[in-house]
Design brief:
With 393 residues, the chain is an alpha/beta fold. The chain is 31% helix and 28% strand. It has a 9-stranded mixed sheet, sandwiched between helices. It has a 7-stranded mixed sheet with strand order 13-14-12-15-18-17-16.
């Protein structure tokens, strides 16, 4: 960790230029020859990445940033805060500490936090930053987390792990065993040190694949931010053998959309109906969960088709996703398309439909944008239809 960048003049320069183009700045002469220009530029670029993602860090003085890639890969404050709201206790050990955003929020839920990060420089940076951020209940170990656990006599309330994919695993189906640390292989060892474990994975992990590798899973959390799935969390408890609950959260600017159901639970069959007055599109967290039939039964709304994953009702309901009023339903035919949508402007979505959005736009010369939303889909009678809608705010 290079502390020379903490001089007031350099920090003021970094803050002043945090919204400037790095490419343009790189062409300028270094105003601080005592410090490498590339180091200052890296701080400016990383800080600019933190502005929206990590506003607490961005607005705190004398923060040191690692590489911009580390900032890009870390949890956002919003997802970290939500994650921390799920668990609490006396002690938590983070086996893959990284830039420490998750631990900053865990520190508000636990009396003590243990941050393990094998990269010595990154560990030192986080230790420095936590002092700036006023976090006093965190200890830091710049070594392999397995060694920290081996050498500790402490029994923790929770272990938190964010395993990273090994470089030689590229191109393979994403499995937890292809990550470091290898969580499935180490579970028995981990359970000697804690009875509860929270595992964060990338959103591309298939939920069934995760379940095939893990045991004692109690809850699976799917977290989306502004309708983009950011992470999966597998919550496991030693010797747990009950039902598995799948919980989704879509974090929006002014609210959090939540939805949950029991995995594999016997539920009534969904109902199907031709398009009614309103149309519903579930948020991305629900789509990732695969709970398409559960949406129909829990909210008592109808599906358009088994594989369309769009819902309809005669009366408007609150819903964790987008809501639309259907203005017109047309068949996907040459005559109807020419009359209604040729050379028009509309937002186009396809669900269970044989053509891509790109092909549809090109074929019918539909410009992107505007207030009209068109869903190209298949109804319960296997007919190809277009729902012309307006979004309900």
């Amino acid at each position: 960790m290079n502390t020379s960048i903490l001089s007031k003049n350099i920090q003021d320069f970094i803050t002043l230029n945090s919204s400037e183009s790095i490419t343009k700045l790189a062409l300028q002469k270094n105003p601080f020859p005592e410090v490498e220009w590339i180091l200052i530029l890296n701080q400016i670029e990383a800080k600019s990445k933190a502005k929206d993602k990590l506003p607490t860090w961005f607005s705190t003085e004398n923060i040191i940033y690692p590489s911009k890639i580390s900032v890009e890969q870390t949890s956002s404050e919003k997802t970290a805060a939500y994650k921390a709201s799920l668990i609490s206790g006396e002690s938590l050990i983070d086996l893959t500490g990284g830039f420490g955003v998750d631990d900053y929020y865990f520190s508000k839920q636990f009396k003590t936090i243990t941050h393990c990060e094998i990269n010595e420089d990154l560990s030192a940076i986080v230790k420095h930053n936590f002092k700036q951020l006023g976090v006093e209940n965190c200890s830091f170990y710049a070594e392999d987390s397995a060694s920290v656990l081996n050498n500790s006599n402490q029994k923790f309330d929770w272990i938190y792990i964010d395993p990273s994919r090994r470089n030689d695993a590229k191109g393979k189906v994403f499995m937890l065993k292809d990550c470091l640390p290898n969580v499935p292989e180490s579970l028995d060892f981990y359970f000697e040190k804690a009875d509860s474990i929270l595992i964060k994975t990338a959103p591309l992990l298939d939920i069934s694949a995760g379940l095939s590798e893990l045991k004692f899973v109690k809850n699976i959390h799917i977290i989306a931010l502004e309708n983009e799935v950011k992470e999966l969390l597998f919550e496991i408890h030693k010797n747990y053998s009950g039902e598995i609950t799948l919980k989704t959260a879509n974090i929006l600017k002014d609210k959090i959309e939540t939805f949950e159901f029991v995995l594999g639970d016997d539920i009534p069959f969904p109902t199907y109906h031709l398009p009614q007055k309103y149309l519903y599109e579930a948020n991305s967290a629900i789509m990732k969960s695969g709970g398409f039939d559960e949406v129909s039964t829990i909210f008592q709304i109808n599906k358009l088709h088994k594989h369309s994953h769009l819902y309809t009702s005669e009366d408007l309901i609150d819903f964790p996703g987008r809501r639309f009023e259907i203005e017109k339903v047309i068949s996907y035919s040459k005559n109807e398309m020419k009359t209604e949508l040729l050379n028009q402007q509309a937002n186009v979505t396809t669900r269970n439909f044989p053509e891509t959005v790109e092909n549809i736009r090109k074929k019918w010369k539909i410009k992107n944008g505007g207030n009209i939303y068109c869903f190209f889909t298949t109804d319960k009678n296997e007919s190809k239809i277009v729902l012309i809608c307006r979004k309900i705010i």
